[in-house]
Structures are given as C-alpha cells and as structure tokens.
Amino acid sequence: MPDLATPLAAWFGQNARDLPWRREGFGAWGVLVSEFMLQQTPVTRVVPHLEAWLARWPTPAVLAADAPAEAVRQWANLGYPRRALWLHRAAVEIRDRHGGVVPRDVDQLLALTGIGDYTARAVAVFAYGDRHPVVDTNTRRVLARAVEGRSQPGPPAKRDLAVMEAMLPVGVHEAAVVNAAVMELGATVCIARAPRCADCPIAAQCAWRAAGYPDTGDARRRQARYEGSDRQARGAVLKTLRDAATRAVPLDEVVPDWPDALQRDRAIDSLIADGLAEASAGTLRLPA
After folding, report:
1. Is the predicted pLDDT of residue 40 greater than 90, yes or no?
2. What is the value of pTM for the model shown?
3. How far apart, in Å, are the Cα atoms of 173 and each of 82, 159, 217?
4. Which terminal residue of the chain, N or C, has fewer Cβ atoms less than 10 Å from its own Cβ?
C-alpha cells in the first residue's frame, strides 16, 4: 500500500472542521453521545442537539437518573429515536457497571447497549487516544477508491478494519489523526456523488483515479423514501407524545388526521414493540 497516512495527516491539519468533539477536554461521555447522534445523521443537525444534550446531562449518571421518556423527548427530530433509548440504557450500564465512567476497553464498550464495532473503537481512539482502526461509511468509501480502485464500497466487512489498520502509522497519536483524517476526507472531499478529486491530498496515489474512475457498481442499501412511509408515521406519533409533556395521550387523539389509519396504528404498535411508547387504559405515552 502506498503511503497515504503522511499526506492525509498534513491535509487534516490544515482542513479539519472545528467540531465540538475534536476540542481539547471534550471528554469520553461527550464523544460517546456524539457518536450515537452521528449515526445516519449529518453533522450540521447533530451539533445543536449534542450541545443541548450535554448541557442537560453532562455525565452518564445524570442521564441515568432521569426517565427514558426524557431522553426520547430531548432527541426531538434527530431521527431513529431508538438511539435515544439505547443511549439512556448505556448510561445506566455505565453508572452501574463502571462507576459512572465511560469505559476505555473496546470489549467493555461493545457490551453496552447500542454500541457496535465502529462506536466502540471511535470512543477508544478519539476519547482515550488508543490505537485502533476506526471505520465508518466515509472511511469505507475512501478505502474502496484509494486502495481498492472501486467507485463505491461494498457491504461492511471485517476486512475493512484490516485495510484501515494497514494504513495507520505506528504512533498512537499519529494513528488517531489518520483515523480522523480519512473520515474527514470522505465526509467533505471523497463524497459519494461528485467527489472533489482536484482537492484530494491523495489523488496521486488513488487507485480509482489511476484506473480512470471506472463505475464498479454500487451495492449500498438504498433507504426507502420517507414521505408517506411508516417511518414518517412513527415520527408523527412520537412528536405527539413528545409535545404532550408528561401526560398520556388518549389513543383517539394520536394524530387522528393521519391519512392512513392502518399505517398510524401500525406505527403505534411498532413504537410499543421498540419500547419507545407505552399503552395503558386507552392511552399512549413515552416510556416511563
């Protein structure tokens, strides 16, 4: 593999966005919350929600002491609200198993609710400075193009970690910088559509560019349209419950004007199944 780390680190030093979780002293809890929020959600939407969340719950113990309903309510319109419930459960586990301190060990992080391979390694690397390969969607796209000569990455695979590991410098600090640099490149330059190759610090070493930018196919899973979907119906039901403060809402007052009553009822049932809502005596409310 050509040396991609050196030009990436130099580029990152000049072009990294000023994001809260990159600032000195941000802390492991802040990094963990940011990683939950950043899953399938753009940075620009996350930042204000993150700041409000940490102002309200500056430690895992403070969140764990509050009701799950408050976490779901604070999540507001970030989308995929099960993340709020998982984050609350993880806070309880951190309080009860780890004395309120976000663990550093990857296996201990993986044992927390809602945390997978990416998030566990991201916390260990970006909060604690340990040396691990960190691979998200943006990273996988850069690796696919620069190393493997493909236009888009395939489905996530363990091999991604091995490819990223081979790119990392030996030094712990330098490895953390390169992890962040690859993610940043994928988010801002090596984007999915219309990549800005003229601005890329590793264009000269890019296997995809050298091959003439072949279209090698796109096996990424397509997200279903939101408008008119069950996801939209779930969001409408949750908004009704969030706006209701602490009271339970009679079922016949839960988005009664939704154009498809069966879809609304299906949304309610799925929210109950996911633990995001509770039904009792003809009413619906956020989880206690």
Report:
1. no
2. 0.89
3. 34, 23, 36
4. C
